[in-house]
TrEMBL record:
It comes from Hominenteromicrobium mulieris. The lineage of its organism: Bacteria, Bacillati, Bacillota, Clostridia, Eubacteriales. Keywords: Kinase, Nucleotidyltransferase, Transferase. The keyword Acetylation does not apply. This is Bifunctional adenosylcobinamide kinase/adenosylcobinamide-phosphate guanylyltransferase. It comes from the Bacteria. GO terms for biological process: cobalamin biosynthetic process. Pfam families: CobU (PF02283). One of its GO terms (molecular function) is nucleotidyltransferase activity.
Length: 105
């Protein structure tokens, strides 16, 4: 599995699709609706070859408690997915940086 994280931009889907395989985009939204992040990470990593999540941890901390909790869940899910991934790629300004493993050929 390849896990891609970073700010969402229009070319992200194209990059993920070029890698081939089944893709799941914006998984941080799924973290908001689950209590068992371990189970969600397991399901996602077994079902998809490529998973993307937008980085939500930077910037100003939300005042709203629910938004803070959702941001925390998204970060925890990203850590769980990165631990399970063979390859972790951080996207920044459309430039992929491999943080773990190697991109598939």
């Amino acid at each position: 599995m390849v896990f891609i994280t970073g700010p969402l931009y229009s070319g992200k889907r194209t990059f993920a699709q070029k890698l081939g395989g089944t893709c799941c985009f914006e998984v941080q939204k799924q973290a908001e609706t689950t209590e068992d992040l371990e189970a969600l990470a397991k399901i996602l990593s077994e079902k998809y070859d490529i998973i993307t999540a937008t980085e939500v941890g930077g910037g100003v901390v939300p005042v709203d408690a629910t938004e803070r909790a959702n941001r925390e869940k998204a970060g925890r899910l990203a850590c769980l997915l990165a631990a399970r991934a063979d390859c972790v790629v951080q996207m920044f300004c459309g430039i992929p940086t491999v943080l773990k493993g190697e991109l598939p050929k």
